[in-house]
Design goal:
alpha/beta, 8-stranded parallel beta barrel, 14% strand, globular
Length: 308
């Protein structure tokens, strides 16, 4: 299986330097990363809105080693929100954050991450939008869920992410499927041990469907993060059985992947949100996109051997 190997490479400085220097990297990265700056990503947001799509914006970068870097990550999101203020797109443009960027792994990281993310959530609320806390590896989740619970006391629209491949997630879904909650379900894209996560794709898919049913039959607002045509069809059928209207859940897909499907679902009346990453520290995000789908890796390898 190549996926675990690629995920391991996502933590390698040597591999980071190799991939960054490869001749085809820039071309492939541009497929998944909307730009490096706020100025570059604003036209992407406007284009999505014009097509009836919504976006969630991720300023990429997870390898935070100092408090100063964590403060800089906070400020990058505040800069983004300041620019969104003038676009008047409301909930069409929300944000996704990884608490590792806000210092979660540093000494006193739980309190630091909460202190850094709170002003971002506050600023988002002021312009009529919200923030979703991304899930990372399993060792970070108790902290993430605790921060999510704390933020929801003042900002109940704050969302969070759960990962179908983890054994714990069905219980998390039952707890989170409450009125007012916003929960994104994804399969999971981190290398996790067999002691905490399903390793077989078929078992992950089965878990995903079980969790989908919990969320769709619950009282919250499910956000379905998947490009899998089978899971999209299953979602539509489970939503129908649960009596869900089209605006009572949404689909989410990554920028640069299955773009025609984004438009098809929106044309059918579904809420369709595009997870749009931007920034200069793209390596970890990019490597997980390669690990998720063999076709992405093949595209990259072909580009590496093709000179610009």
């Amino acid at each position: 299986m190549l996926g675990p190997v690629i995920l391991a490479a996502s933590r390698s400085d040597r591999m980071r330097r190799f991939v960054s220097a490869a001749p085809g990297t820039k071309q492939v990265v541009a497929r998944f990363i909307a730009g490096e700056t706020v100025d570059q990503v604003v036209p992407v947001i406007e284009d999505a809105a014009a097509k009836g799509l919504e976006v969630t914006l991720d300023v990429v970068g997870e390898d935070i080693t100092t408090r100063e870097q964590a403060f800089a990550a906070r400020d990058a999101y505040l800069e983004l929100i300041d620019r969104l203020k003038g676009l008047e797109l409301g909930a069409r443009a929300e944000m996704s954050v990884k608490l590792s960027m806000f210092g979660q792994a540093l000494e006193g990281g739980h309190e630091l991450a909460l202190a850094n993310v709170r002003p971002v959530v506050e600023a988002a609320a002021e312009i009529g939008t919200t923030v979703t806390l991304d899930a990372e590896d399993h060792t970070t989740l108790d902290s993430m869920f605790a921060i999510h619970e704390e933020l929801r006391k003042d900002f109940p629209q704050t969302g969070c992410v759960i990962q179908a491949y983890l054994f714990r997630t069905e219980d998390d879904a039952r707890r989170l499927a409450a009125s007012g909650s916003r929960v994104r379900i994804v399969k999971g894209a981190y290398k996790e041990p067999a002691s905490v996560a399903y390793q077989d794709k078929a078992e992950i898919d089965k878990a995903y469907v079980r969790i989908l049913k919990i969320l769709l039959e619950g009282a919250g607002y499910p956000m379905i993060g998947s490009h899998d045509p089978r899971l999209i069809a299953v979602t539509q059928e489970l939503a129908r059985r649960a009596g869900r209207k089209l605006d009572e859940y949404e689909f989410q897909m990554l920028y640069g992947i299955r773009s025609e499907e984004h438009l098809r679902l929106a044309a059918e009346g579904h809420r369709m949100r595009v997870y749009t990453a931007y920034g200069t520290d793209w390596y970890g995000y990019f490597m997980r996109r390669l690990a998720e789908k063999p076709a992405n890796l093949l595209f990259f390898v072909r580009s590496m051997i093709t000179k610009n």
